[in-house]
Design brief:
Elements (H helix, E strand, L loop, with lengths): L6 H14 L3 H4 L12 E6 L3 H12 L3 E7 L9 E6 L6 H13 L8 E6 L3 H4 L9 H14 L3 H10 L7 H6 L3 E7 L22 H10 L6 H7 L16 E7 L1 H14 L3 E4 L4 E4 H17 L8 E10 L10 H13 L5 E7 L11 E4 L3 H7 L4 H6 L3 H8 L2 E2 L10 E7 L4
Parallel strand pairs: 1-2, 1-4, 2-3, 4-5, 5-6, 7-9, 8-9
Antiparallel strand pairs: 9-13, 10-11, 10-13, 11-12
């Protein structure tokens, strides 16, 4: 029988394993092609892009190129320029670096190779607004999308049609050079066209679909954006000849990280159920369903049975109703605690593998049967915090936040519920 003396430490070890196997320095070199006859130009964006660039130079040596990553996520590279910019709401640093990246791709030949390193976060970091959209307009639209509760796929559809670089436009700019995009997936289903809003991948969506998404979620965008969406945008069709030599490869995905955590848990004597690596939905609603499942599993357990671990990944959303500080993972953990009401034997962790949940420098949180008692001791009410979308402040008061700092990778959310047998 498994002996798990410290459930919180055990859950944290599973999360750490999930993050470690997605480190670009461990695996990226397996997918790098031989050097081209012509120039090798490395571009990219995302929270993991600087670490990916570091792995590329560890393999090839110094390279020509530019990648854009989140503030605090830079890595030392010899040839590739690393630019840090704002995420999740873009800024001028990202806009200016994106313009230079597009200039870098101009005038390439058929013998050249563009290596595009794309990971989660690229949607905000690659900034080149279409039409007359200003940076301030773009920032307001991004903030509204993030607060709307819209699924990531819908947000990225809108972003593509308001951009000069997303939806295949980065690869089109490099034509006729060969483009190989190496992707770390942070989206449900691992669709290359949705990772970072698909800068090297063609898209069949229309401006009308983007308008419908905005209307459905009640997002009022500036007139400049409405003007762009009223005509033909720059999004590139998958059959466009400029994409004929563009390839996108997802080389790291949430399923691999969940599998690594599962193996570690089984080694510790747990039974494991992976509920899916691409779950979506409102964080508090998913938490309610998971709480019911965990309660039922504990009720069916007999003393002496091995612990049960429920693992899941994906990208949950939060419809912002209050004015607190939170993120999808912390809100899921808080809603789970509220639904469980101190149920015995059930512990859980919910974290984002990039180390940033929402806009806070916090990966997520851990809960257990003592969460309500801890909250009462420090004068916090879980239900009130949930109503105010204030999960980060709640768990900070309880000293139950998970803070990792930059993990330099991003394979989406990681959720683990540990159910210990009675007694």
């Amino acid at each position: 029988m498994s002996q798990i003396a410290d459930p919180a430490a055990f859950l944290r070890s599973l999360f750490d394993r999930a993050v470690a196997v997605a480190d670009p320095m461990r695996t990226l070199h397996h997918f790098l092609p031989p050097p081209p006859a012509g120039r090798l130009v490395v571009v990219g964006a995302g929270k993991a892009s600087a670490r990916m660039a570091e792995a590329v130079e560890a393999h090839y040596g110094p390279c020509e190129g530019l990648v854009i990553t989140r503030y605090g996520y830079g890595r030392p590279c010899t040839g590739i320029e690393i630019v840090e910019a704002a995420h999740p709401v873009p800024d001028a640093a990202g806009r200016d670096a994106t313009a230079r990246m597009l200039d870098m791709l101009t005038g390439l030949d058929e013998g050249d190779l563009v290596l595009a390193l794309i990971s989660g976060g690229a949607s905000a970091l690659l900034v080149q607004p279409a039409g007359e959209i200003t940076l301030d307009d773009k920032m307001a639209i991004n903030a509204a999308l993030l607060a709307s509760g819209a699924p990531i796929g819908e947000m990225n559809t809108v972003r593509k049609h308001l951009s000069r670089v997303k939806g295949g436009q980065l690869a089109a700019a490099a034509h006729p050079a060969r483009v190989l995009a190496l992707l770390i997936s942070d989206v449900p289903g691992d669709d290359p066209g949705m990772i970072g809003s698909g800068p090297t991948v063609g898209d069949t969506s229309t401006p009308a679909e983007a308008r419908a998404i905005l209307d459905r979620h009640g997002i009022d965008v500036p007139a400049s954006a409405r003007a762009v969406l009223s005509g033909k945008t720059g999004v590139v069709s998958p059959d466009d000849p400029r994409l004929a030599r563009a390839e996108a490869l997802v080389y790291a995905a949430p399923s691999q990280s969940l599998g690594a955590a599962s193996a570690l848990a089984r080694d510790a004597g747990c039974r494991v159920q992976i509920m899916g690596d691409a779950l979506e939905g409102e964080a508090r609603e998913v938490a309610g369903a998971d709480a019911a499942r965990a309660r039922a599993a504990w009720k069916d357990m007999a003393a002496g049975q091995p612990p049960l671990l429920l693992l899941s990944g994906g990208e949950l959303t939060v419809t912002r109703r209050g004015d607190g500080c939170g993120g999808p993972n912390a809100e899921y953990a808080l809603a789970l605690a509220v639904a469980l009401q101190g149920a015995p034997g059930i512990h859980a962790l919910a974290c984002d593998t990039d180390g940033v949940d929402g806009a806070a420098e916090v990966a997520g949180a851990i809960i257990g049967p003592d969460t309500e008692a801890r909250a009462k001791k420090v004068g916090r009410d879980p239900a009130t915090a949930l109503a105010d979308n204030d999960a980060h402040a709640f768990f900070a008061a309880l000293d139950r936040q998970v803070v990792t700092g930059p993990t330099l990778t991003n394979v989406n959310d990681f959720r683990a519920i540990l159910i210990l047998p009675p007694g």
